[in-house]
């Protein structure tokens, strides 16, 4: 009897931690304006200071893993923290918590956009927004490039990739795999650089 | 069949999107063009809406594209298949990091991947500009002015939501 009671207690605890992760990331998610890295201070406040799920020394690991894995940095941080706190269940709970608010907002916005895109003032608004989006993307390239292009090798790689893109319509996936291979080979040949 | 293609494409986009949400935009643009799911201009509008909502821009655009091509089911499929690679890779990375404190293979590969990603995003930005008649001779100067203003404001760390709202208001004032 006692053992059984203990087991249900453990299960209750598991569920409540998963629910806690879900709620915490649901609260953080709407703050994720302007990219995942902006989220780190909020994660630090909620996860490290309030819930004590994580030590401050482990916060750099969050960013390292989130930036090394493919995908959004905000989502990746949630997955990693959830996994460290409570395994795969925790990873999924944190990820879903991170997703739900933006999913609801985006479904609402999609509905509004599809319903009102033909109105003339919406169309003129988008005529102003489109060049801003081009600026937004170019700025994203600048921001990633600032950290990525740092020596002769990376400058060369950037130039080769850019000219391949503009001359042949080469597949991005093929280019990314090529970049990974050359990056890896360059370090094997010049071990000093790592 | 449409749902199956949505799953495959967004899984691929999620798997190769190294370097945050913006890294996935060029991959998405390519998939959308290949399958003719939406027009290039609609794609720009989707990025505008995804970028002005809170939350990750890539998952937001995935949901929007999924919704517009196959309804709510499409939105769910696109979002889930876009996220699965992140989930798998992070679980794998965490296991690897626990076993070998430093895996040089990963950082060495990313050293080569990030310049390529930069080129891809730059290319996507320029393509998007061409498709929205930005880099043609007939374009009016307001379009360039708004683009420049957006870049300057973003550089000054103004939030994308504010930049997008402001350019929308400018659009209504200039073209309305």
TrEMBL record, chain A:
Signal peptide: none annotated. Belongs to the chromate ion transporter (CHR) (TC 2.A.51) family. This is Chromate transporter. The keyword Membrane applies. The chain crosses the membrane at residues 14-40, 61-85, 91-116, 128-149, 155-185. Keywords: Cell membrane, Membrane, Transmembrane, Transmembrane helix. InterPro entries: CHR_Transporter, Chromate_transpt. Its main location: membrane. One of its GO terms (cellular component) is plasma membrane. It is found in: Cell membrane. GO terms for molecular function: chromate transmembrane transporter activity. It is a multi-pass membrane protein.
Automatic annotation (TrEMBL), chain B:
It is found in: Cell membrane. The chain crosses the membrane at residues 6-25, 73-98, 110-130, 142-175. The keyword Transmembrane applies. InterPro entries: CHR_Transporter (IPR052518), Chromate_transpt (IPR003370). GO terms for molecular function: chromate transmembrane transporter activity. It is a multi-pass membrane protein. The keyword Cell membrane applies. Keywords: Cell membrane, Membrane, Transmembrane, Transmembrane helix. It comes from the Bacteria. GO terms for cellular component: plasma membrane. It holds the Pfam family Chromate_transp. Belongs to the chromate ion transporter (CHR) (TC 2.A.51) family. This is Chromate transporter. It comes from Halobacillus dabanensis. The lineage of its organism: Bacteria, Bacillati, Bacillota, Bacilli, Bacillales.
């Amino acid at each position: 009897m006692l053992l059984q009671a203990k087991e249900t207690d453990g299960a209750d605890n598991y569920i409540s931690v998963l629910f806690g992760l879900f709620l915490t990331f649901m609260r953080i998610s709407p703050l994720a304006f302007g990219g995942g890295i902006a989220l780190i201070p909020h994660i630090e406040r909620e996860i490290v200071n309030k819930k004590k799920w994580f030590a401050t020394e482990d916060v750099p690991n969050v960013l390292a893993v989130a930036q090394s894995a493919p995908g959004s940095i905000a989502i990746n941080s949630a997955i990693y923290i959830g996994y460290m706190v409570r395994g795969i269940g925790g990873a999924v709970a944190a990820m879903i918590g991170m997703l739900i608010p933006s999913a609801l907002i985006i479904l609402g916005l999609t509905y509004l956009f599809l319903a009102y895109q033909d109105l003339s003032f919406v169309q003129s608004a988008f005529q102003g927004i489109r060049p801003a989006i081009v600026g937004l993307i170019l700025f994203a390239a600048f921001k990633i490039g600032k950290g990525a292009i740092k020596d002769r090798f990376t400058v060369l790689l950037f130039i080769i990739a850019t000219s391949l893109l503009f001359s042949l319509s080469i597949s991005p996936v093929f280019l990314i795999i090529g970049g990974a291979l050359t990056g890896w080979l360059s370090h094997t040949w010049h071990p000093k650089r790592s | 069949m449409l749902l199956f293609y949505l799953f495959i494409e967004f899984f691929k986009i999620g798997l190769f999107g190294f370097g945050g949400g913006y890294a996935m935009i060029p991959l998405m643009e390519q998939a959308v063009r290949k399958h003719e799911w939406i027009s290039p201009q609609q794609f720009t509008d989707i990025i505008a809406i995804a970028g002005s909502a809170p939350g990750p821009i890539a998952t937001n655009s995935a949901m929007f594209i999924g919704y517009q091509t196959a309804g709510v089911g499409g939105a769910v499929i696109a979002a889930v298949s876009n996220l699965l690679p992140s989930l798998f890779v992070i679980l794998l990375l965490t296991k690897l990091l626990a076993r070998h404190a430093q895996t040089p293979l990963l950082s060495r590969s990313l050293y080569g991947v990030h310049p390529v990603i930069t080129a891809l995003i730059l290319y996507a930005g320029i393509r998007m500009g061409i498709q929205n008649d930005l880099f043609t001779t007939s374009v009016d100067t307001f379009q360039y002015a708004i683009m420049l203003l957006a870049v300057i404001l973003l550089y000054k760390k103004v939030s994308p939501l504010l930049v997008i709202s402001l350019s929308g208001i400018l659009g209504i004032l200039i073209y309305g």
